[in-house]
Amino acid sequence: MSNTASPRVAVLKGGLSAEREVSLASGRACAEALRGEGFEVVELDAGPDLAAVLKRESPDVVFNALHGRWGEDGCVQGLLEWLRIPYTHSGVLASALAMDKQRCKLAYRAAGLPVVDSLLVPAAEVRGGHPMVPPYVVKPNNEGSSVGVYIVQEAANGPARLSADMPETVMVEAFAPGRELTVSVLGERALTVTDILTEGWYDYDAKYTTGGSHHVLPADLPAEVFAAAMRHALRAHEVLGCRGISRTDLRWDDSRGVEGLVVLETNTQPGMTATSLAPEQAAHCGLEFGALCRWLIEDASCRR
After folding, report:
1. Using CB atoms within 10 A as the burial measure, which of 131, 203, 253, 279 is most buried?
2. Cα–Cα distance measured from residue 98 to residue 185, given in angstroms and rounded to the nearest whole number
């Protein structure tokens, strides 16, 4: 970032992905917080003309509040590096790798992190029969926020009835039973573990509907499981090359002790409202939302 005393910040929000509405909420919250911290802020709804808009607005730094494809997969990061504008969160490679679930798992495995079996399968084959023994999960390989996720239960009579808008190739992974855990990493520090409680599974509505889930933090876990979750999240952040803040989701089968802990995925652009999981963990560790947004701006750079 430049040495400007009070840099002009462009908050990127909205965008073109299936997570547009979530990104709009993140962007509004971050923009308000940054104004409260004394920054001059312009909010930009990222569209096809984003490069021209950025050249016109000429910000000193970009706060990336985009979620999903194009904003979280390395595309906008590459544009910002081309324009030489410092930006927050992870860079091109880490963003692309984390967003590609199957390649991300290859990196996890190489780092010794526990993951469930998975494969990429044509959607037509999934509609026609079971690609693996149930229970299993079917999802797009490069979306977030549980967009387009199908769970095929153990007693399922038939394969998943995928919607017509699913991509031609999907990820199929063995279902990981147990509790939904998440750990945020800020810089080089794992913050804490949250236990996410829902009535069903942690789908899009449970994530973003008021009352859809209940967060317990710090999670009430055996000490060795808590420590392993923190360690796994930090290792995932490191092996992917993440910067700024990330959030890694895990499942824990409490019938198997620490061996029941598996890593699901890492979010390089986690939700950023004051009550979202990552800011909630930061606040628990003493860093309130405005200060967190300021920290991310101060951490911004090119070539991340």
Report:
1. 279
2. 14
